[in-house]
Amino acid sequence: MIHAYAEEYLNDAMRNLGEAFDYAACACKIDIEEFMQYFITGKYAEQFGIGNPKIISGMSGTELAINIISESGKNIDFPAEQTVYDYSAEYWCGWILAYYQWYTARSFKNIYDYISMAEVYKLYPTLHEAPEDKFVDTVNAIISSKIGTTALQSQRKKAGLTQVQLAEKANVNLRTLQQYEVNAKNINKASFQTVMALCHALGCQAEDILEY
């Protein structure tokens, strides 16, 4: 499975984005929704999303937040840099968002098109102690409900197969199949072999499961 960047950088990325959200919200008193908008409209989200070491490891979370806020043009007196974080709900929002972006390889802008930071924040009480994959599954389901039915999902249901049955029949990783069904991964960029295996299992043509 292809992720956004090498896993060796993931812990740094999660910690730093968590610290950035915590500093912005708790120290600078900026709403996390507003901070997220600064993030995705500036230059840092794209570089963070591809795992640029200078962005995800080369600066602290506080430095990242200051750069994002400064780039937005918002004029504030920045509080002293934090060195200790108490893992607030805001910290978790940034931390888990970094994981989701790495796992799905979706851009932060694309993620934000479907789920707001307010919605992420509401998941904190039930998911902050759960495995990260539980958050991935939950957000994928939320996005799926907003996107509607994908062509692949329609063909699978037409064939009377569950996701598990189709994954086994096509010899495709179950989680990858689930991501294709909710557009967390673009099926149009899947390998020829994967598309053909799914078509063979479903008894359909490639154009029946690709998105247009």
Report mean pLDDT, rounded to a whole number.
92
How much beta, percentage-wise? under 5%
The separation of the N and C termini measures 23 Å
Category from helices, strands and their pairing:
mainly alpha
The helix-strand sequence is HHHHHHHHHHHHHH
Largest sheet, if any?
A: none
Question: What keywords describe this structure?
Answer:
single chain; 212 residues; mainly alpha; 63% helix; 0% strand
Could you describe the 3D structure shown?
The protein is elongated and about 60 Å long. It is mainly α. 63% of the residues lie in helices and 0% in strands. The mean pLDDT is 92. It contains 14 helices and no strands. It has helices at 10-27, 32-41, 44-49, 53-56, 61-72, 89-104, 108-114, 117-122, 124-127, 132-147, 151-158, 163-170, 174-181, 192-202.
What order do the helices and strands come in, and which of them pair?
Blueprint: H1 10-27, H2 32-41, H3 44-49, H4 53-56, H5 61-72, H6 89-104, H7 108-114, H8 117-122, H9 124-127, H10 132-147, H11 151-158, H12 163-170, H13 174-181, H14 192-202
